[in-house]
Design goal:
alpha/beta; about 45% helix
Length: about 280
C-alpha cells in the first residue's frame, strides 16, 4: 500500500492542506501519516544534564499522538470531505521540521509528501511554494504536492501536466494516468514547442498512440515565451492541480523569475504536484 506523509502545525493553512492529503490518500488508496514536529523545550538556569533528560522523558509521545488523532478539528474535516475511511496515523516528533520530514520519509518508506504553504513570504518563489517546501524539494526524491493557502478543496477532476515531451517524463505520466483512470479525472498535457527539439515529435507520436484510450488530451502551442504561455493556459482552463517534473530549472522556477504579477495573483490558488526527474 502507498504511503503519504503530511507535516502539519495545525494552522489554518495546514488544515486546508489536510483535506487534499486525505483526498490524495483516497485517490491512491494509500495510508496517510500526519507528522507534527515541535521545537525542543529550552531549559536554563544551571540545571544538570541528568535532570534535563528526566524532564524530557516525561513527554509521552504515544499520548501526544493519541491526542492529535482525536483532534475534533481533524475529525470534523474528515467528515466534511467524506473520507473517514482513509487510514490515518499520527506521529509527533521533537526537532527541526525538514530533517524530521526526511527522517520520516526514510523510516516509513513514504511515497508522496503533501505540504501546505501560506504565501507569507515576500519573494514570488516562496510565495507559491513556501520556504519549507523549497528546502524539502531539494532534499527528497519523492513527489511533493504543495497546497497554497488560497486553494479551495473542490475535488480532483482536472489535472494539467506541463511537459517537454521527453522520454524521462513517461513514468510520471503513467503514474498520473493510472490514478486518473481509477478516479474519473481528466489530464491535459500541455507542451510549448521549442526550437531544436528533435525528439519532441517522436515522443508526441508515441504518446498519442500509447494514451489514445486514456482520459487525456494534448494541447500544443508555438510560442516564444514558454512560461507565459503555460500560465495563460492554466489561468483560463478548469484545473484542480498542476503537475510538473522538477529539473535543474523547472517551469515553476522559471515563471517565478519573471514579473508576471497578474498571473501569479491568480496562480496562487492552484495546488502543484512536483515530481522529481529520473534523469
Amino acid at each position: 500500500m502507498k504511503k503519504i506523509l503530511f507535516p502539519t502545525d495545525y494552522s489554518e493553512t495546514a488544515n486546508n492542506a489536510f483535506k487534499y492529503a486525505l483526498q490524495l490518500a483516497d485517490y491512491r488508496e494509500a495510508e496517510l501519516y500526519v507528522l507534527h514536529v515541535y521545537d525542543p523545550p529550552i531549559i536554563s538556569g544551571g540545571i544538570s544534564p541528568q535532570l534535563v533528560e528526566n524532564v524530557l522523558k516525561k513527554t509521552s509521545f504515544e499520548k501526544l499522538e493519541q491526542l492529535h488523532a482525536n483532534s475534533p478539528v481533524l475529525i470534523e474535516m474528515r467528515k466534511e470531505v467524506g473520507l473517514e475511511h482513509v487510514p490515518v496515523f499520527f506521529k509527533v516528533k521533537e526537532g527541526l521540521l525538514v530533517p524530521e520530514i526526511v527522517h520520516a520519509i526514510e523510516e516509513n518508506n513514504i511515497d508522496f509528501l503533501v505540504m501546505g504553504t501560506d504565501g507569507a513570504n515576500s519573494s514570488f518563489h516562496k510565495k507559491i511554494l513556501g520556504s519549507n517546501t523549497i528546502n524539502t524539494i531539494a532534499k527528497v526524491d519523492i513527489p511533493i504536492l504543495s497546497i497554497p493557502k488560497e486553494a479551495h478543496f473542490t475535488g480532483l477532476k482536472n489535472i494539467i501536466f506541463t511537459s517537454r515531451f521527453e522520454l524521462e517524463e513517461e513514468s510520471t505520466l503513467d503514474d498520473i494516468v493510472n490514478g486518473a483512470v481509477v478516479n474519473g479525472a481528466h489530464i491535459k498535457v500541455v507542451h510549448v514547442k521549442q526550437k531544436g527539439c528533435v525528439s519532441c515529435e517522436e515522443i508526441y507520436s508515441k504518446w498519442s498512440e500509447k494514451y489514445k484510450d486514456a482520459p487525456l488530451s494534448f494541447h500544443l502551442f508555438n510560442a516564444e515565451n514558454i512560461e507565459k504561455t503555460l500560465l495563460d493556459f492554466i489561468t483560463h482552463e478548469p484545473v484542480d492541480m498542476v503537475a510538473t517534473v522538477k529539473r535543474n530549472k523547472t517551469f515553476i522556477e522559471n515563471i517565478l523569475s519573471k514579473s508576471v504579477t497578474q498571473h501569479l495573483a491568480k496562480h496562487l490558488k492552484v495546488p502543484f504536484f512536483i515530481y522529481k526527474s529520473k534523469k
